[in-house]
């Protein structure tokens, strides 16, 4: 079973391996190298990689590579690349690889050294964090009724445990933990980053219902060198979004809104 899972999991990689290209197997004259095996090993999730990085595991990956090479050679022999459906999938695969490569290039500002740090330093306020709690209900009138009770002195955490429809944060008193703007539902983020600490918001509508939000703590953005991976990813996404907006501004893009509305 694990063999076939690995076949499905092996994906196209944008980063080449660094191992010496020594032959591990030859399939009808086509060599499979140590570099190819280590590249596929590096593509696996950390836990799976640790499990497979044994003599037995590496042999299993090699068997996967051999199977894929046999399937590839058979497909070429049958000229499947000339079939219309196959050509469409190959074109889409090429498009996906190019899009992902461009996303990586843009999100690192063309790999220009400390460009990410410069972006972060000039947008520090966007990456400060707040800690907030919320109570989620279905109807606005319910939110307003709860807000009146909270204003009269009812404890927010107790109310969240009793009334919130959020099954994850409700039992924790509505606590959402610390988050940046980019890591929270936009409606809640917009309110949370304006609220003074310990003040309760008016009902906030999102696709999930109506929220009462209370900010319980705030902290300034960390130094760039101290950023956890999650926040660094936020920086990369922000840089990418800015680059996409610049591309859109410099391009001719038309949207048929009426046709979009008529879609079912």
* Number of extended strands: 6
| Overall shape | elongated
SSE order, as H and E? HEEHHHHHEHHEHEEHH
Which strands sit side by side, in order, in the main sheet?
Answer: 4-3-6-5
Task: Kindly provide the name of the CATH class of the domain at 129-219.
Answer: Alpha Beta
What is the first-to-last residue Cα distance? 40 Å
| Structural category | alpha+beta
Helix content: 40-55%
Write the layout of secondary structure elements.
Blueprint: H1 2-9, E1 23-27, E2 30-33, H2 34-43, H3 46-52, H4 55-77, H5 84-107, H6 115-122, E3 129-137, H7 140-151, H8 156-163, E4 175-179, H9 186-192, E5 204-206, E6 209-219, H10 229-249, H11 257-262
Antiparallel strand pairs: 1-2, 3-4, 3-6, 5-6
Helix pairs in contact: 1-4, 2-4, 5-10
Please name the defining characteristics of this protein:
264 residues, alpha+beta, Chitinase A, domain 3, two-stranded antiparallel ribbon, 6 strands, 51% helix, elongated
Question: Can I get a quick summary?
Answer:
By secondary structure, the protein is an alpha+beta fold. The protein contains eleven helices and six strands. Among the domains are: 2-78, no CATH class; 129-219, Chitinase A, domain 3 (Roll), CATH 3.10.50.40.
Structure overview:
- By secondary structure, this protein is of the alpha+beta class.
- It has helices spanning 2-9, 34-43, 46-52, 55-77, 84-107, 115-122, 140-151, 156-163, 186-192, 229-249, 257-262, and strands spanning 23-27, 30-33, 129-137, 175-179, 204-206, 209-219.
- The chain has a 4-stranded antiparallel beta sheet with strand order 4-3-6-5, sandwiched between helices. It has a two-stranded antiparallel sheet with strand order 1-2.
- A hairpin with a 2-residue loop joins strand 1 and strand 2.
């Amino acid at each position: 079973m694990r063999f076939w899972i690995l076949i499905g999991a092996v994906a196209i990689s944008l980063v080449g391996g660094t191992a010496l290209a020594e032959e591990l197997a030859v399939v009808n004259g086509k060599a499979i190298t140590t570099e190819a095996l280590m590249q596929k090993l590096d593509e696996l999730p950390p836990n799976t990689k640790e499990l497979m990085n044994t003599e037995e595991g590496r042999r299993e990956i090699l068997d996967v590579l051999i199977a894929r090479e046999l399937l590839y050679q058979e497909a070429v022999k049958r000229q499947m690349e000339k079939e219309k459906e196959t050509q469409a999938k190959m074109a889409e695969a090429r498009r996906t690889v190019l899009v992902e490569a461009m996303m990586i290039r843009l999100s690192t500002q063309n790999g220009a050294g400390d460009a990410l740090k410069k972006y972060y330093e000039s947008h520090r306020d966007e990456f400060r964090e707040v800690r907030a709690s919320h109570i989620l209900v279905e109807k606005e009138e319910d939110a307003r009724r709860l807000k009146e009770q909270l204003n009269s002195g009812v404890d927010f955490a107790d109310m969240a445990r009793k009334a919130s429809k959020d099954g994850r944060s409700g039992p924790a008193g509505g606590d959402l933990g610390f988050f940046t703007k980019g890591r929270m539902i936009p409606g809640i983020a917009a309110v949370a980053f304006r609220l003074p600490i310990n003040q309760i918001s008016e009902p906030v509508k999102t696709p999930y219902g109506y929220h009462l939000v209370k900010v319980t703590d705030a902290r300034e953005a960390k130094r760039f060198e101290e950023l956890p991976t999650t926040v660094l990813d936020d920086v990369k996404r922000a840089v990418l979004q800015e680059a996409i907006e610049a591309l859109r501004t410099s391009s001719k893009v038309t949207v048929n809104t009426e046709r979009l509305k008529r879609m079912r």
